[in-house]
Design brief:
Layout: E1 33-37, E2 46-47, E3 52-53, E4 64-71, E5 81-92, E6 101-103, E7 119-125, E8 136-140, E9 154-161, E10 167-171, E11 173-174, E12 177-185, E13 199-212, E14 218-231, E15 237-242, E16 245-246, E17 252-257, E18 260-265, E19 271-272, E20 276-284, E21 289-291, E22 295-298, E23 319-322, E24 325-329, E25 346-350, E26 353-356, H1 362-376, E27 390-393, E28 396-399, H2 414-423, H3 431-439, H4 457-460, E29 502-509, E30 530-534, E31 550-553, E32 562-563, E33 567-569, H5 578-585
Protein name: Serine/threonine-protein kinase pkn1
EC number: 2.7.11.1
Organism: termite gut metagenome
């Protein structure tokens, strides 16, 4: 769910609302997090030679789950749903037993109630938008030839969640049945018999049914069809997902090896129970089959793992989530330090987004340039940095001095910055997004002002800002590495939002008479030929590094004091490659 970052099954970030109120409102910026887990595999379920589970034993990036929030102690129904959290859609961002799930849109994000009454959660996998009004989930196991996990059904609940702890542990359980067949040649046959290319079909099983998200009962079993079954690449292991059922008189598994047919007839009235794994070793002859003893076990053993939510490994690497809502932008009237272009201070609606913790580095930009070179054979001129330590030599782009890998990339045009962001599936931040992230809820001159009070700035700024001033904030009259430990991040754990390098924003503006962006109240058509830069740089005086300070430049400008960072609006989530994002944004 939504803890995006180093990106369990879910870190859904939930915030405050009343069951009868608009659930978009947030209380004290506190969030509820789902730390949810899949059960351990009860036997080896990895397709030999493929490096992938056949049934649902791990989460995959791109898996979707549905979530409901309801009043505690009451069955799921329309009357107990809280905050319109009714089948909200969340997506996995990582592979593994635990993953981070994030909302696929602002409308899907879940917020904790303003009142402190306990709430409960119901969740399931895989997500479907065809759940009925009476909470019946449609099961269809008829197609298992490709990826059987897509027809699996997992279910989790958590009761009596109170505001005292923001962590919500969810453990998902299998609700269907798993049939595992280990194939061996008949003892009279060649022990090295080849099963590659074998075709396996399950016959006589119900393939459709309804699962109640209210009480977990399965009903309306129907449509007895032939099920094409998935095998490992060597043909020696078969896994079938079944609807829990009592089978009839004509139920069997058929094996077709290049026209040689063998059949295993399953005893009539055989019961396959929910959440169980049935495993057999079958010795295949022509046309008979010998069956070894039946082994029945739980489908997965529960695990309980303590999670420290302050540990960065549970968050997307070098990304920070900024929750959507209405935020104040600009400076209050009569702010002595403010320029006219910071007026009027106004409230603007900002959607939920993720922003890079650090400014983009030389090494990260080189990765982008080398991708372009490999993909297209060349890099467009406006994307190439100039007068910098990044150069092209021996058929590849390099950081000429590897000690500068983690310095912010500069001398990059607005076009180059935007192209890099789009390569990762994101964008440059808007002015509103940038200032919201910079302030981190603080409406003083800087994000580090104590309780929005500006009296102690001279004592604090050397801990946060790399700028030009009478007293150098860091002892160096130059840009610093993005991960320099002499400078602290803001409350949102974002580094160098004040100073170091100014940062491109995606907004276009026009200049006022003084050469800076026109005031916010200026009626602007959106066709300006200048782009906003924010945050100030190592060359700027301290007051130019304030949260509200604005500047602008031609998009073609390349200079040693302008860099950038990237944002990922929540609307982009379904299309993001989180593995790529984590690889690129990692800092050595």
């Amino acid at each position: 769910m939504r803890v995006l970052g180093g990106w369990l099954i879910g870190a859904i970030l939930l915030m405050g609302c009343n069951a009868n109120d608009d659930h978009r409102f947030v209380s004290d910026n506190k969030v509820v997090k789902f730390n949810s887990w899949l059960l351990e595999a009860s036997s080896v379920s990895r397709a030999s030679g493929e490096g992938d589970f056949m049934t649902k034993e791990e989460w995959r990036a791109g898996d979707y789950i549905g979530v409901y929030m309801k009043e505690s102690g009451k069955p799921l129904s329309d009357h107990v749903i809280i905050g319109d959290v009714d089948n909200n859609k969340y997506m996995s961002t990582k592979d593994g037993k635990n993953s981070i799930f994030i909302a696929v849109s602002d409308d899907d994000e879940i917020y904790y109630p303003y009142n402190t009454l306990p709430v409960s959660f119901v969740a399931y996998y895989p997500y479907k938008n065809t759940v009925t009004d009476d909470y019946l989930y449609p099961i269809d196991i008829s197609d298992q030839k490709g990826y059987p996990a897509n027809v699996d059904l997992l279910y989790a609940t958590f009761e009596d969640k109170s505001l005292e702890s923001m962590n919500v542990p969810l453990t998902f359980h299998h609700q269907l049945t798993k049939l595992v067949l280990n194939l061996q040649p008949n003892l009279a046959e060649d022990k090295n018999a080849y099963f590659g290319g074998i075709k396996v079909r399950a016959n006589g099983f119900c393939t459709k049914a309804k699962f109640s998200l209210v009480n977990k009962l399965i009903s309306n079993r129907e449509e007895i069809e032939t099920i094409p079954v998935k095998t490992t690449s060597d043909g020696k292991r078969v896994e079938v997902i079944l609807i829990p059922q009592t089978v009839g008189t004509d139920t069997y598994i058929e094996f077709d090896l290049f026209g040689d047919i063998a059949r295993w007839n399953i005893s009539a009235n055989k019961v396959f129970e929910a959440g169980k794994q049935y495993e057999y070793t079958l010795y295949l002859g022509k046309p008979w089959i010998e069956v070894d003893e039946e082994k029945i076990s739980p489908w997965g053993d529960e695990i309980s793992v303590p999670v420290n939510w302050d540990d960065p490994k549970y968050f997307p690497v070098n990304l920070v989530k900024i929750s959507g809502g209405d935020h104040l932008i600009g400076s209050p009237e009569n702010t002595v330090e403010a320029a006219v272009n910071e007026y009027p201070q106004h409230e603007t609606s900002v959607g939920t987004f993720w922003i890079s913790s650090y400014e983009i580095t030389n090494k990260q930009y080189v990765d982008f340039l080398n991708f372009l070179s490999h993909q297209y054979g060349k890099v467009a001129e406006e994307l190439q940095p100039h007068n910098t330590i990044i150069n092209y030599e021996g058929g590849a782009w390099h950081v000429a001095n590897s000690s500068k890998d983690n310095y912010p990339v500069t001398n990059v045009t607005w076009y180059g910055a935007k192209a890099f962001a789009q390569w990762l599936g994101g964008d440059l931040p808007s002015e509103a997004e940038w200032e919201t992230a910079c302030r981190a809820g603080n409406y003083g001159l800087f994000s580090f002002s104590s309780d929005n009070n500006n009296d102690n700035i001279n004592d604090l700024y050397p801990l946060y800002v790399n700028c030009r001033d009478e007293i150098l904030s860091n002892g160096d009259n130059a840009v610093l590495p993005v991960n320099d430990n002499r400078l602290a991040p803001n409350k949102y754990k974002l580094y160098n939002m004040h100073g170091n390098v100014s940062e491109w924003c995606r907004d276009a503006v026009v200049r006022n008479a003084n050469g800076s962006p026109a005031p916010y109240e200026y009626k602007f058509s959106g066709e300006g030929n200048l782009c906003v830069i924010r945050g100030g740089s190592w060359k700027d005086p301290l007051m130019n590094c304030r949260s509200a300070s604005r500047d602008c430049a031609l998009p073609e400008m390349q200079t040693d004091y302008i860099g950038f960072r990237v944002v990922f609006p929540i609307s982009n989530v379904p299309n993001l490659d989180f593995g790529k994002i984590e690889r690129v944004l990692s800092i050595d």
